[in-house]
């Protein structure tokens, strides 16, 4: 919004100074085509409102809507929460551990410096239009009229950047040439009721002829979670050192994971978490990102590791200690209540529907789903739900996971890339199909075949499994709850039955076992009752750490949950090895699962996770995590 308290003389374009500047992060359009009717003595502030990576000081492409902001238009600034120069300490004096709060306090926005060219690239550019006719004695002043506590402005002078303070003044020479500013947000939006993410910058030019002002609005880029239409670029997993049995199994798993990643075209090596021994790499971090238009309209993005809302979980510290750095930041929520159920706060309970529009609502960057326990009213941490909703793009949708011990959405639903108008299909566990496989095998005379073909595994037969009323009841429960969740997903997204990929699955209720200290009980999968051994590392972290006594039946995967795998590329999927009944030399669950994914256009590979994750009530997906491509503009579908 431009104001002035005097009449400014209009000048011809030829009379105006021509200044062409190229700034890291955003290119500045040359003023050769400057609008002829623009008063050269009126303050005029410009930002990249149309998100083409250029601050247009010559024409009018960045003027309409400069005072507002919408998903499709408006200037964007980044939360400058990475550590481009690697200056943030990860230990205190004498190598003592820093507190979580101290780890989180340090980032590039925590000081009043621009820490090198890489840090400068994270600044959103704002320009004042050159004022060649500004009267002698004129000076300019820049103020933040909104968002002053949450944003910071720098002015470029020579080869450096200086923070704009209440004492900063722009000289007549700077006003004549046009000044360049860099803007950073100091954090992501935590709660839109407290800060909506906007910063309003006002330029005031004062001279003997009067005062003229203009202002522009920027909003911090939303923090967004990945979806499966973004190509996988790197996988993360926990490395267990040593030479004990689990360490050896973990090594075999990681080798197999890296092999399958390479086959899918993922060339970057695995990121190995090594410090805290938490094997559930899916559950202590949700990889996310922020982005704004950079040079030539290409996205300038920053990865942001969203730490799970589990203050006790030490593994989240490694995000600061190992991953934070150039173009990688970390966000951890605070204010998590002791009464909020820890397992629901694992980030394995946070998945993302790919982009869609339905029922008058559009989600160009996808939409978060999380599990809640409707039976008890238990929900994921309010602080996390508030943060996600406050971004304004991925409003979390809650699904009912009351019927699952661990309670994570990744245990029964996934989203698969597809060459369809929608661009994706919905994959879902199908317990009815799993029971049907067993009944067909029994009717064909294979009732005496062992349920599991894993060496040293449970001895239960197909006939014994089908004779177990609890197992049948468990899968009837799972099927009903999954169908209810499907109705929610169909209503919210418009997905049709023809777009649903049903993947055979089986679930089973747990039994109770004493904890190591003898003070309580923990739910264990029914497999442990049949001779399988639960790994110690599975007891110590995540899934098993704080499972509360359930008022009703809760289940976990009986046969390794095929939907709980990794989408490696648009047509390649990695599932947990099924270890189902082998008939005529073929694993009948592997055959059925392969058919389901092949029918959806996916090539499926299998990785054994029986002893590494399955016995601990998780699968391949639970033990890994994925960094995906962030080069796309989040405001476009």
From TrEMBL:
Residues 212-636 form the Protein-arginine deiminase C-terminal domain. Keywords: Signal. One of its GO terms (molecular function) is protein-arginine deiminase activity. Residues 1-35 form the signal peptide. Gene3D superfamilies: L-arginine/glycine Amidinotransferase, Chain A, Protein-arginine deiminase, central domain. One of its GO terms (cellular component) is cytoplasm. Pfam families: PAD. This is Protein-arginine deiminase C-terminal domain-containing protein. The lineage of its organism: Bacteria, Bacillati, Actinomycetota, Actinomycetes, Kitasatosporales.
């Amino acid at each position: 919004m431009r104001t002035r308290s005097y009449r400014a003389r209009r000048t011809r374009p030829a009379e105006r100074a021509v200044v062409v500047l190229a700034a890291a992060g955003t290119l500045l359009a040359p003023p050769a085509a400057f609008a002829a009717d623009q008063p050269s003595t009126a303050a005029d502030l410009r930002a990249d409102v149309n998100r083409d990576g250029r601050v247009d000081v010559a024409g009018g492409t960045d003027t309409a809507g400069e005072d507002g902001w919408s998903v499709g238009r408006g200037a964007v600034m980044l939360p400058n929460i990475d550590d481009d120069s690697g200056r943030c300490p990860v230990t205190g004096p004498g190598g003592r551990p820093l507190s979580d709060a101290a780890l989180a306090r340090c980032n590039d926005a925590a000081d009043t410096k621009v820490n090198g060219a890489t840090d400068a690239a994270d600044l959103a550019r704002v320009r004042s239009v050159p004022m060649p006719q500004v009267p002698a004695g004129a000076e300019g002043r820049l103020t933040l009229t909104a968002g002053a506590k949450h944003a910071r402005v720098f002015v470029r002078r020579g080869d450096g950047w200086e923070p704009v303070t209440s004492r900063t003044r722009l000289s007549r020479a700077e006003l004549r040439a046009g000044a360049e500013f860099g803007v950073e947000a100091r954090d992501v939006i935590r709660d839109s009721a407290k800060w909506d993410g906007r910063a309003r910058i006002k330029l005031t030019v004062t001279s003997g002829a009067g005062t003229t002002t203009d202002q522009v609005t920027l909003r911090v880029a939303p923090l967004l979670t990945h979806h499966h239409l973004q190509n996988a670029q790197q996988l993360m997993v926990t490395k267990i050192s040593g030479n004990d049995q689990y360490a050896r199994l973990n090594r075999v798993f990681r080798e197999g994971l890296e092999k399958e990643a390479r086959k899918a075209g993922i060339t970057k090596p695995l990121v190995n978490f090594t410090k805290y021994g938490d094997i559930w790499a899916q559950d202590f971090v949700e990889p996310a990102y922020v982005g704004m238009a950079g040079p030539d309209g290409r996205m300038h993005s920053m990865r942001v590791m969203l730490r799970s809302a589990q203050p006790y979980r030490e593994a989240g510290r490694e995000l600061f200690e190992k991953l934070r750095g150039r173009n990688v930041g970390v966000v951890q929520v605070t204010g998590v209540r002791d009464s909020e159920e820890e397992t629901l706060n694992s980030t394995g309970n946070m998945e993302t529907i790919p982009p869609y529009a339905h029922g008058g609502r559009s989600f160009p960057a996808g939409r978060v789903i999380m599990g809640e326990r409707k039976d008890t009213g238990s929900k994921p941490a309010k602080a996390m739900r508030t943060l996600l909703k406050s971004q304004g793009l991925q409003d979390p949708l809650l699904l009912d996971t009351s019927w699952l011990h661990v309670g994570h959405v990744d245990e029964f639903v996934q989203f698969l890339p597809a060459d369809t108008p929608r661009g994706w299909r919905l994959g879902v566990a199908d317990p009815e199909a799993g029971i049907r496989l067993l009944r067909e095998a029994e009717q064909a005379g294979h009732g005496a075949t062992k349920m599991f073909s894993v060496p040293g595994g449970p001895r239960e037969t197909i006939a014994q499994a089908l004779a177990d009323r609890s197992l049948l009841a468990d899968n009837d429960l799972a099927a009903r709850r999954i169908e209810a969740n499907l109705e929610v997903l169909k209503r919210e997204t418009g997905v049709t039955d023809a777009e649903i990929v049903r993947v055979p699955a089986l679930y089973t209720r747990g039994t109770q076992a004493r904890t190591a200290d003898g003070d309580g009980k923990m739910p264990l999968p029914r497999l442990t009752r049949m001779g399988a051994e639960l790994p110690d590392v599975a007891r110590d972290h995540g899934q098993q750490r704080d499972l509360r006594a359930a008022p009703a039946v809760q289940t976990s995967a009986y046969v390794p949950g095929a939907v709980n795998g990794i989408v490696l590329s648009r047509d390649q999927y990695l599932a947990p090895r099924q270890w189902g009944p082998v008939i005529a030399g073929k694993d009948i669950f592997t055959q059925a699962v392969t058919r389901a994914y092949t029918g959806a256009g996916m090539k499926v590979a299998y990785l054994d996770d029986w002893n590494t994750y399955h016995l601990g009530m998780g699968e391949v997906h639970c033990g890994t995590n994925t960094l995906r491509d962030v080069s796309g503009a989040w405001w476009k579908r």
